[in-house]
Amino acid sequence: MTTHRSKPLPVTRRRRGHAHPRDNPSLPEVINTDAELDEVLTRPRPVLVEFIRSVSSPLVILGAGGKMGPTLAALAQRAAKQAGHALKVIAVSRFSDAAAKHWLEQQGVKTVSADLLERKQVERLPDSTNIIYLVGQKFGTKQNPAATWAVNIVAPAHAAERYKGSRIVALSTGNVYPLVEVKRGGADEERALTPLGEYANAAVARERLFEHFSRKQGTPVALLRLSYATELRYGVLADIARKVHGGVAIDVTSGHFNCIWQGDANEMILRSLPLAGSPPLAINLTSPDIYPVRGLATQFAKLLGRPARFVGAESGSAFLSNTNRMRTALGRPPTDLEAVIRWTAHWVRSGGRSLNKPTRFETRDGAY
């Protein structure tokens, strides 16, 4: 196995050739409202505008009603509009959150209500040669593991059967890997999938279902193993900032992590369509750098004017991913962590909205 041996970078270090946030006029100094946040999350870069011209219509996004789906769909729609490309973006979800459905329609995205666990509903979905698959279930697995297995196995099978031969970019998770030593860097895509807990094992099963249908039907698939997309309303950075602000002790046993700004993750998911192959190609989707929980909490403490409290001691292992393959294929995530830290601190200090969906990044036994 190839390992990434570089040491975790200090969160304040400025990397050679990587723009400082204040050098980038497209990054705001602060973000004050949900509308401003959504605008930043869905603002396409020129590389996406150029790419989206090659995507044939329609683009179907399955599971578009969750935390990432709405902004991903809106990002694709904005990119197509800027490109002058008449791409129809179709967002498919049960839409248990009616507000997400309404917001998507306001952005010019067509919505279709469907439950991917119901085969007949999946069979009636619009035809497409380009599919983004975001369906998954993680939290609540400990209480109802059967539901997690159903969502992560039945839905992929239905989608793969319905869209035989179409390009599919399927979102997976870095939890498919075991804990790895921090000093050796993150797990690469060739690492054996020996995960902890029912959720992570169900996530491996989801990958295997896509792999099975890819090999059987020749369907091109890319499996994107995401580790901690973050924005201001949820994510590891928001969790740490809110704990510091609220005087809650932070468990540093799992003391290091990767994360990626959600807007960057969404862009890279879309740009992964040409990477789909048979058999599937797996790609770790996260930050190239490894961040220390203690260091970030200390930085938030300074920005928030509150002391950071800690419990436990760093164990030396964590859930970490190596991003060499991602950087070769898609480049480095463009949004600097320092900007996200600044935005997050201001958001929390100003009483910005939270989705109240903790990442539980401290979890080490896979029990979610």
Strands, helices and their partners?
Blueprint: H1 34-41, H2 46-52, E1 59-62, H3 69-83, E2 89-93, H4 98-106, E3 110-113, H5 119-123, E4 130-133, H6 145-162, E5 167-173, E6 180-181, H7 197-217, E7 221-226, E8 229-230, H8 236-246, E9 250-251, E10 256-257, E11 260-261, H9 262-271, E12 281-285, E13 291-292, H10 293-304, E14 310-311, E15 317-318, H11 324-330, H12 337-349
Parallel strand pairs: 1-2, 1-4, 2-3, 4-5, 5-7, 7-12, 8-11, 9-14
Antiparallel strand pairs: 6-15, 10-13
Would you write up a description of this structure?
The chain has 368 residues and is α/β, with parallel strands linked by helices. It has a single domain, classed as NAD(P)-binding Rossmann-like Domain (Rossmann fold, 3-Layer(aba) Sandwich). The protein contains twelve helices and 15 strands. The strands form five sheets. It has a seven-stranded parallel β-sheet with strand order 3-2-1-4-5-7-12, with helices on both faces. α3 links the parallel β1 and β2. The radius of gyration is 20 Å and the shape is globular. The relative contact order is 0.16.
